[in-house]
Design brief:
Number of helices: 3
Distance between the termini: 62 Å
Largest sheet: none
Structural class: mainly alpha
Strand content: under 5%
Helix content: over 70%
Number of strands: 0
Low-confidence stretches: none
Radius of gyration: 26 Å
Order of helices and strands: HHH
Length: 123
């Protein structure tokens, strides 16, 4: 009897979010989609800049994580040359991630300067 009640409680708690969302979308009109931001060249540029900004942030976050992992490896190496080499490699990977992120962030400015367009791309 207790197993059946437990199964019923698990199934009920699993289906509860669906019941709640049914109340939200239960109106007479279906929800409308937001307007597409890509209507012209400026929309495409804005989407690409948003994506590159997200990638830049992710790369910097990964670089910080790599630095922390390298520091942990150095602290726990206890003089073992193999662990110290592994920590050094991790630190090199972090430096490469930072360099690639900064290079990717600077490429639009280089392209704008080579094309001779006035101003800089929006960041």
């Amino acid at each position: 009897m207790q197993k059946k009640l437990l199964k019923l409680a698990v199934i009920g708690s699993t289906l509860l979010p669906f019941a709640a969302s049914a109340q939200i979308f239960g109106g007479s009109q279906p929800p409308t989609l937001p307007p597409s931001p890509i209507m012209n060249y400026g929309g495409v540029r804005d989407v690409l800049l948003t994506v590159t900004n997200w990638i830049f942030g992710i790369l910097i976050l990964l670089a910080v994580i790599f630095v922390l992992i390298a520091a942990f490896k150095y602290l726990t190496a206890s003089g073992d040359p193999e662990k110290v080499k592994s920590a050094s490699n991790t630190l090199i990977y972090a430096a490469i991630a930072i360099a690639v992120a900064l290079l990717a962030r600077g490429i639009p400015f280089l392209v704008y300067s080579f094309l001779g367009t006035p101003g800089a791309p929006p960041v």
